[in-house]
Design goal:
Elements (H helix, E strand, L loop, with lengths): L11 E4 L4 H4 L9 E7 L2 H4 L2 H11 L3 E8 L5 H13 L4 E6 L1 H15 L9 E2 L9 E5 L11 E6 L4 E6 L7 E4 L1 H4 L4 H20 L5 H21 L3 H21 L3 H13 L3 H17 L4 H7 L5 H10 L16 H11 L13 H11 L1
Parallel strand pairs: 1-9, 2-3, 2-4, 4-6, 5-8, 6-9
Antiparallel strand pairs: 7-8
Helix pairs in contact: 4-5, 7-8, 7-9, 7-11, 8-9, 10-11, 10-14, 11-13, 11-15, 14-15
Bound molecules: fe (ii) ion.
Length: 369
């Protein structure tokens, strides 16, 4: 029997080498005055920013560039983007970057048409007015943000990551050009690729998973596991991981993530561990915990593709940390990490069969030592 499901995918998706030349001119169908939002280095240093500007000029699309997005963005980044957008009277935002730039663009688009602060809009469908449209050009192979309804932003006041969630912030156009990511540093290929694997796996285990999201989860898991090690040195394999991350985006757009992401937030906020790397570190231990806490059947299905020991070996082979010791933490850090995990998991518990408590997190983190 097929459980009822809804699947909504409003993004026009372009995937392929050099496809940016064909895809970017479509911006003129949704806006005339673009704000190009990106981080401080990658787009400029790789020549991508210049290429985007040339295509926009060639197609008579006015634009201004905002290069101020920080790697783990906070509400301030989003306010800065909204301010720049209003100043230039932008009617479309083009985000170039990883999850950070795309999420800041999505949240900035909300603030451009809705008064107040971003704190007012954390949660599900909390804003009134339609945000200006966003075009997403991912430069990493992990976040899936180019096709999702989420903007994940650090709330500085509460010291945790929070999410603006709405179907109205899903990018209108997603441009995935594998030539763009071929200069990505190896650490980021590993970290963001494993983030995508976590999306596929957590989405599979979510109580919101459907027949269709499970198809994308399994294909994403296959693409990433078969290709990620070789992707560090081969563009062909990297392209497959990129595709896997897109599919994982389709998954979490509907299913959300579960407690792996919530656990990892503390590692990122307090210890500045890269988002995907922190998730990759938590995933095998989370899988082991779930196996004895109500998810036996689901984990058995996933074990057709991998088990926790293989994930630990994979992290090692990708030169990612595989224990808390590897990132310089010890037993005394566990109580605070567990407290942060509990806070970070507030949303993800809604996608799970049951909630876990602080003792559960202490047990998992102790195994991670
Ligand atoms: Fe993620």
């Amino acid at each position: 029997m097929v459980k009822n499901f809804k699947f909504f995918l409003p993004s026009k998706i372009f995937f392929g080498k050099d496809i940016i030349n064909e895809a970017l001119p479509e911006v003129k169908n949704i806006g005339r005055n673009a704000l190009v939002v990106t981080g401080k280095r990658f787009a400029r240093e790789t020549g991508l920013l210049e290429k985007v500007c040339q295509i926009l000029k060639h197609n008579a699309i006015n634009f201004h560039v905002f290069e101020g997005v920080t790697p783990e963005p906070s509400t301030t980044d989003c306010e800065n983007v909204a301010r720049a957008g209003k100043q230039y009277m932008a009617d479309v935002i083009i985000a170039i970057g990883g999850g950070s730039a795309m999420d800041v663009a999505k949240a900035g688009a909300v603030l451009m048409t809705n008064s107040g602060t971003l704190q007012d809009y954390f949660g599900e469908e909390k804003f009134q007015n339609q945000p200006i449209p966003v075009v997403a050009i991912p430069t990493t192979c992990g976040s899936g943000s180019e096709v999702t309804r989420y903007a994940v932003i650090i709330d500085e006041k509460e010291k945790t990551k929070k999410t603006v969630s709405s179907e109205r912030i899903i990018p209108k156009i997603a441009i995935l050009d594998p030539l763009i990511i071929k200069t990505l540093p190896k650490m980021l290929i590993a970290g963001t690729g494993m983030d995508a694997l976590c999306h596929a796996v957590e989405g599979f285990l979510s109580i919101k998973a459907s027949h269709i999201t499970k198809i994308f989860s399994i294909e994403s898991i296959r693409l990433i596991l078969e290709n990620i090690e070789k992707a560090l040195s081969s563009d062909e394999n990297l392209e497959m991981v990129f595709l896997g991350s897109l599919y994982a985006g389709f998954v979490i757009n509907h299913s959300g993530t579960i407690f792996v992401h919530g656990m990892a937030y503390g590692l990122t906020i307090k210890y500045r561990i890269h988002h995907g790397t922190a998730n990759a570190l938590c995933l095998p231990y989370a899988i082991d915990f779930l196996k004895t806490h109500g998810y036996q059947e689901e984990i058995k299905e996933l074990e057709k593709f991998f088990n926790s020991q293989q994930l630990i070996r994979l992290n090692k082979s990708l030169k990612l940390p595989s224990s808390l010791k590897d990132i310089g933490l010890n037993r005394s850090d566990i109580p605070e990490l567990s407290e942060m995990a509990l806070k970070g998991c507030e949303r993800s518990f809604r996608n799970m069969k049951s909630r876990f408590n602080q003792n559960d997190f202490e047990e998992i983190f102790t195994k991670m030592l």
